[in-house]
Write a structure and sequence with these properties.
CATH class of chain A: Mainly Alpha
Largest sheet of chain B: 2 strands, antiparallel
Strand order of the largest sheet of chain B: 1-2
Chains: A mainly alpha, B mainly alpha, C alpha/beta
Largest sheet of chain A: none
Radius of gyration of chain A: 19 Å
Number of strands of chain B: 2
CATH topology of chain A: Arp2/3 complex 21 kDa subunit ARPC3
Number of strands of chain A: 0
Number of domains of chain B: 2
Number of helices of chain B: 8
Number of domains of chain A: 1
Distance between the termini of chain A: 26 Å
Radius of gyration of chain B: 24 Å
Largest interface: A-B, 83 and 84 residues
Strand content of chain B: under 5%
Order of helices and strands of chain B: HHHEEHHHHH
Strand content of chain A: under 5%
Shape of chain B: flat
CATH architecture of chain A: Orthogonal Bundle
Oligomer: heterotrimer
Helix content of chain A: 55-70%
Structural class of chain A: mainly alpha
Shape of chain A: globular
């Protein structure tokens, strides 16, 4: 009996790496490196210059912190925007929109997770680190543009999650559910550390009712705001990213073959 | 010459809002932050977007600001003037303090100011206007696509969600318990993701054919009002914004 | 020299590749209408203009060419709307307008007439007729005479697909009449539509006896789909009620409703809920695996049981949607445009099964403008105006 699939329905021309500008110029590389460095320096600076200081004087941190992370994320976007095939660029806004819708719904529900990086991790898994990073950064910026500007300063962290998801996929971490879980937890720890300064100095730890209560409790034990937020952030992100990676593993199994054929990690 | 909100150029809104962001984040005392918030809200009100701003605060910055305030109010480290105390165990010490309330309010105002500054930049500007402004500023066309389309994308998604949801009802899928509802929700995410993955190559082909990656001057169907005064204002406000940034870093 | 206008029937891979090799500058319009909307515009007018923004000499010329094409396709009333909030047929027309506004020398349109009603179809064909350039378009489903008449040549692939022995399926259903009394149907609500709350249809009274089939006809937007959804209990009527046998459809629980009346809507791609054909047929309120397998067999889908439904061809997806609607053993089967993207073979399969369903006492309600289908299933016609 003849198979009923659409193996050959598509035009050959559309499969040949549409609009793939894989010419990485020196300028793009420099932009990416400066962007990443800027984020690292911003984090290091926050950590070194203000840790242990009285909270009331931390007012000078917020602006340089947001600026450093935001410009860093923007430079990474600009440095990678030409490297990514147009077919992936076309996909990213819709992936970002899924993150936003989901993150917004989960955010106001009693579920103590974020789940706003599912599409980021999925794109990282399918299309590689650069595309993942782009999806992450764009999600938070677009989220800010439409509903919730508090997400904008986390754009750098979100980009990092997409990037790491891409590398995890290349290393084969999405082949087994437990490997995905471990990779997710590991990415969560890193994301937690990176996000903590923003959560502490810009938002005073108040990113949600559940997470906020944890921060308040930790502060009540005598921890500084930064230490309390870092602890909470690492804890929440570890659980959240482990869940997200697991969900992406589940989703990955349901992706149609004709989509899988287009991506190297699932072919 | 009369200036009303309809004669404000989208670029002016963007510059105004974005320049207010660093102002919201630099170190100011509580009084100055309160005054700034009032000023910013006045601008939002004048833009005619107060209603949308309400929703924006309710869903986004509002809860964050309130939580931040509450955390500091009850557990500020180094509190001296203490109004009430609760020590459930020996190492946990919640204290409602004057310093905590003040610091919490300062943080809460910082968050609200940041959100309101962003609201000035984005609420009065539609996706099409944003595309025009960014194109005029000569940003890379792919970046413009990413930003503008992600503003529009939820409309398409909500359409897809509606279709998937309808299918679930049609097939009589159980939605009586929280567990079955979350299972349905997860199925919907899977379907949504598959739908966008199935069409992204066609989407890219369509965009390429219609000149997304081609360089050149674009002719826009719509025109946006602009005046010499607004142009000068944008330069001044923009320069002030950059100065605030530099000052904030050096301080 | 007159420009070629080539119609490709069936898969026709070679003809496509040859055409595109010969005309590398050709613009290609893929079959998925939503993917052809950029998401960059606030209005349909801007969306159509997007493709000529770089080539237009000035604003007025651009507006004129946008309006010219829109008028020819009869979509000037859509120009002010949000491009992502349109129906499938409207979206297809906007996509066509977008590509015809770009004055290209060669054009390949993948299944351009799908989802269009009779008048929109006429307009689209007229635009293709007037097009001054090399044109190729495809139609994997059954093709109309008007479409054949337009083509200067037709590439027809010989179908090797052999019709499976249609096994006599043992239908499970409790015969019951479908009765709708004095229904008042509202315009479906949508965020981008400001017309909510208005009445679309009023005083609709229907009675379909067991073993009978009814066809709802009328132009796009006349309310066929909405009426079907109301009959199936998915959309709520403003007043009036729908019964299957003695049971009130609106008052039946979601889980039980598909056993009374089961609906397969348009665009099967958006109805897929699981990751394999097997699981799809047993999802929700179904009669179980055995009956599901029987249905897959008789719909000639058994060989694809393990596959992901998204990997099926459009035609097979459409058959699967009907099979899934039957999996709950309904007394009434409601179908919205079930023949729109069926290949000629699958069409025969569907007609055979639908007739066998009504012979077993099932009630069939079909919304369609496919006159051949309405004839083949001996349906009584109910026209919406």
């Amino acid at each position: 009996m003849a198979s009923r699939t659409t193996s050959g329905q598509r035009l050959a021309s559309s499969e040949a790496g549409l609009g793939n500008h894989s010419t990485t110029s020196v300028k793009d590389r420099v932009l990416t490196i400066i962007g990443a460095l800027l984020m690292v320096i911003t984090y290091g600076w926050t950590l070194l210059s203000h840790q242990g200081q009285q909270e009331a004087t931390s007012g000078n941190i917020a602006m340089p912190l947001v600026l450093g992370y935001f410009i860093g994320a923007l430079l990474i976007i600009l440095g990678n925007i030409k490297r990514i095939p147009l077919s992936i660029i076309a996909l990213i806004p819709f992936a970002a929109a899924i993150n936003i819708v989901l993150g917004q719904i989960v955010g106001i529900s009693p579920i103590p997770l974020y789940l706003d990086t599912i599409a980021t991790v999925l794109i990282g898994y399918l299309a590689g680190p650069a595309a993942g990073a782009m999806t992450g950064a764009l999600t938070n910026i677009a989220w800010g543009l439409t509903i919730n500007p508090t997400t904008i300063p986390f754009a750098g962290g979100a980009a990092l999650i997409g990037l790491l998801a891409g590398y995890a996929a290349r290393a084969g971490f999405f082949q087994r559910w437990w490997k995905a879980l471990i990779a997710g937890a590991f990415v969560g720890v890193i994301a937690g550390f990176v996000g903590a300064p923003v959560a502490a100095y810009v938002y005073g730890g108040g990113m949600g009712v559940g997470t906020g209560s944890i921060v308040a409790t930790l502060q009540a034990t005598g921890q500084s705001l930064f230490a309390a937020t870092t602890l909470q952030s690492v804890l929440s992100d570890t659980i959240d990213k482990a869940a997200v990676f697991l969900i992406v593993w589940v989703l990955g199994r349901g992706i149609p073959q004709r989509v899988k054929d287009r991506f190297s990690t699932t072919r | 010459m009369r200036i009303d909100r309809f004669s404000i150029n989208p670029k002016t809104w963007l510059v105004l809002g974005l320049s207010a962001v660093p102002l919201a984040l630099i170190s100011l005392d509580i009084g100055a932050r309160a005054v700034l918030l009032l000023l910013l809200i006045c601008v939002v009100a004048w833009s005619g977007k107060l209603h949308a701003y309400g929703r924006y605060v309710l869903l986004g910055v509002g809860p964050v600001a309130v939580t931040a305030f509450c955390i500091q109010a009850v557990s500020f480290v180094g509190a001296q003037t203490i109004y009430a105390q609760w020590t459930p165990t020996s190492f946990l010490n919640f204290r409602l303090s004057k310093e905590g309330i003040l610091y919490g309010a300062t943080l809460g105002l910082q968050i609200l100011n940041f959100g309101t500054a962003c609201a000035i930049a984005f609420l009065p500007v539609s996706a099409g206007e944003l595309r025009w402004a960014l194109t005029d500023w000569k940003l890379p066309s792919r970046l413009i696509y990413l930003l503008v389309t992600s503003m529009n994308a939820p409309v398409l998604l909500s359409r897809y969600v509606g279709l998937v949801r309808e299918s679930q009802v049609r097939r009589g899928l159980d939605d009586s318990t929280v567990f079955s509802r979350s299972k349905l929700a997860l199925t919907s995410i899977g379907t949504l993701i598959n739908l966008i993955l199935l069409e992204h190559e066609d989407r890219a082909q369509s965009l390429e054919q219609r000149g997304l990656d081609r360089p050149g001057e674009r002719v826009f169907l719509r025109t946006y009002p602009d005046t010499q005064l607004q142009r000068v204002l944008r330069w001044i406000v923009g320069a002030c914004g950059i100065c605030t940034c530099i000052w904030g870093i050096l301080a | 020299m007159r420009h070629r206008k080539v119609l490709v029937l069936g898969e026709g891979q070679d003809a496509r590749a040859e055409f595109l090799a010969e005309h590398p500058e050709a613009l290609v319009l893929q079959a998925n209408p939503y993917a052809n909307i950029s998401g960059l515009a606030d209005t349909v007018e801007d969306e159509i203009a997007y493709g000529v923004e770089l080539t237009a000499s000035n604003r007025d010329a651009m507006r004129q060419s946008v309006h010219e094409v829109s008028e020819k396709l009869g979509i000037t009333y859509l120009l002010g709307k949000h491009p992502l909030g349109l129906s499938g047929g409207q979206t297809q027309l906007v996509a066509l307008a977008g590509i015809f506004t770009i004055k290209s020398t060669a054009l390949f349109l993948e299944n351009p007439l799908v989802g269009l009603d009779a008048s929109a179809r006429q307009r689209a064909l007229a635009l293709m007729e007037q097009y001054r350039g090399e044109l190729m378009w495809s139609n994997p489903a059954r093709v109309g005479e008007d479409e054949r008449a337009l083509a200067t040549s037709i590439v027809e692939e010989v179908f090797e697909h052999v019709l499976a022995d249609q096994q006599s399926i043992k239908w499970r259903l409790a015969p019951a009449a479908l009765v709708a009394e004095n229904l008042e149907v509202p315009v479906p609500s949508a965020r981008w539509s400001k017309r909510t709350g208005q009445t679309l249809l009023s005083g609709v009274t229907l009675e379909v006896a067991p073993g009978e089939s009814l066809a709802l006809t009328g132009a796009n937007g006349s309310g066929k789909s909405t009426l079907l959804k109301t009959l199936a209990g998915i959309a709520k009527p403003k007043s009036g009620r729908v019964r299957v046998g003695e049971q009130d459809v609106a008052r039946t629980k979601t889980k039980r409703r598909p056993q009374l009346i089961s609906l397969a809507t348009q665009q099967p791609r958006y109805q897929i809920l699981t990751t394999s054909v097997e699981r799809e047929i047993t999802a929700g309120a179904s009669e179980g695996k055995d009956y599901g397998r029987q249905l897959l067999q008789s719909f000639d889908l058994e060989s694809s049981a393990a596959e992901n439904p998204y990997d099926l061809s459009n035609s097979a997806q459409q058959l699967l949607a009907v099979a899934c609607a039957l999996a709950s053993a309904p007394s009434v089967l409601a179908l919205d445009e079930p023949s729109a993207s069926l290949s000629p073979q699958d069409y025969q399969t569907l007609v055979g099964l639908l007739n066998s369903f009504t012979q077993a006492g099932g009630v069939l309600v079909v919304a369609s403008h496919d006159e051949e289908l309405i004839r083949d299933i001996n349906a009584r016609v109910f026209t919406l105006t």
